[in-house]
Amino acid sequence: MKQPIKVRGHSLIDYGFLAVAIAGPIALGLKGAARALPFAFGATQGALNATTDQPYAAKRLVPFRLHGRAESLAVPSYALAIATSGALHQPRAKAFFAAHLLTLATVYTLTDWNADN
């Protein structure tokens, strides 16, 4: 399968992920771990993206392929953190996290990690 998401597109999606990770829990009125986890993962993702060798980076330090290796751990880590933190006790949190995890997994799968800038 040919992955349609290249470096530029992935980088924009990652910044969008950061925005949703911050705004989503606030808009949904999530509390406690259900609010904190997306903030933490979003901030981590945002920092990685801002320092990855891509067109919209603040400082190009991390090779894109290494960014991909780090992201390969994001979905299972995020899912484990959600499941073990009690974040799913709020009904709206379940829908938010399901959509968030599905988006993360889809973007990871559709990204061409061998693409050049």
Fill in the keyword field for this structure.
mainly alpha; membrane; 117 residues
Kindly describe this structure.
The chain is mainly α and 117 residues long. It has one domain (7-110). 69% of the residues lie in helices and 0% in strands. The protein is built from five helices and no strands. α1 runs antiparallel to α2, α1 runs antiparallel to α5 and α4 runs antiparallel to α5 (91-110). The protein is elongated and about 40 Å long. The mean pLDDT is 93.
Write the layout of secondary structure elements.
Elements: H1 7-28, H2 33-50, H3 64-72, H4 74-85, H5 91-110
From the spread of the alpha carbons, the general shape counts as elongated
Count of helical stretches: 5
Biggest sheet statistics: none
Structure class: mainly alpha
What is the percent of helical residues? 55-70%
User: What value does the average pLDDT take?
Assistant: 93
- Percent of residues in beta strands? under 5%
How far apart the termini lie comes to 20 Å
Strand-and-helix sequence, N→C? HHHHH
Structural domain count? 1
Query: What's the Cα radius of gyration?
Result: 14 Å
Task: Identify low-pLDDT runs.
Answer: none
> What is the number of beta strands?
0
Keywords: Membrane, Transmembrane, Transmembrane helix
Transmembrane segments: 12-30
